[in-house]
């Protein structure tokens, strides 16, 4: 019973830091789809942006580890087998997920992408039950049902439009936008559950997990590019084909977002992170209207409150073990 108390104490001691991290994550999470769509050209090779993001993520995590002093004792404690056991499979899954998200960014508007991306909460709950036997409360099951309703509504609604305002056909929206982001959500749920299992068993810090997964995931991507279309494109045009100075903006933003998720979760827990996600959806809607001059579609307007209610309910009513409560 000491562990929950210890987990809550950082949020009270580090109020200003938690607030600062939460604000940054809200802005990053809400702006990322729009930034990626505007700054990454269609000619940019997906693998190049994903690999560069992983390199930036490793650099940021190592800097933070050096700052908190955990980097000094790493040489004595770290082992290759321990790293592969804890981070190998999640890293490979996350690498594929990131590639799918980069593809999806280009075919969906920012708000539709952000809403569909929240289905990863459903798949995280599913895989944590399968892998960790972590149960859900009745309210959480209801919240997950709302989330699926929103995803189905958006998938059917947006996919039925013949063309979008940017000239993208319904087939492109479905196969290059909706399906990739939904598959990425499934992979995110699986990888997140595996990371939770690894952190409980291996006691890895979030920074160390970030470094390990980024390195292993990058190696997996490099191997996969040997005979992939992206690999051929890199050989023909070069690694940074289509890149501009602006391309680094979403790459760095995405890398920092990964670090911020770990910081907010470790300092404030899942409740604060849930409110961050809800706030980020509103930021996405406002930014899309401000910079693209396009109001949300009717499907988004119906789906948005469903998703916001779902996330709030899921975070507010966690499952409580009656046996432990009596003890």
From TrEMBL:
Record keywords: Membrane, Transmembrane, Transmembrane helix
Task: Give TM segment ranges.
Answer: 46-66, 111-132, 144-161, 173-195, 207-226, 238-262, 274-290, 296-314
In this entry, which stretches build a coiled coil?
A: none
The keyword Transmembrane is assigned to this record? yes
- In the UniProt record, the signal sequence range is none
Classification via InterPro entries: EmrE-like, Nuc_sug_transpt
What subcellular compartments does it reside in?
A: Membrane
Lipid bilayer topology: Multi-pass membrane protein
A Pfam family cross-referenced in the UniProt record is Nuc_sug_transp
| GO terms for cellular component | membrane
Q: By its UniProt entry, which PANTHER family does this protein fall under?
A: NUCLEOTIDE-SUGAR TRANSMEMBRANE TRANSPORTER (PTHR10231)
Family to which this protein belongs: Belongs to the nucleotide-sugar transporter family. CMP-Sialate:CMP antiporter (TC 2.A.7.12) subfamily.
This chain's protein is named CMP-sialic acid transporter 5
In its UniProt entry, the species of origin is given as Eruca vesicaria subsp. sativa (Garden rocket)
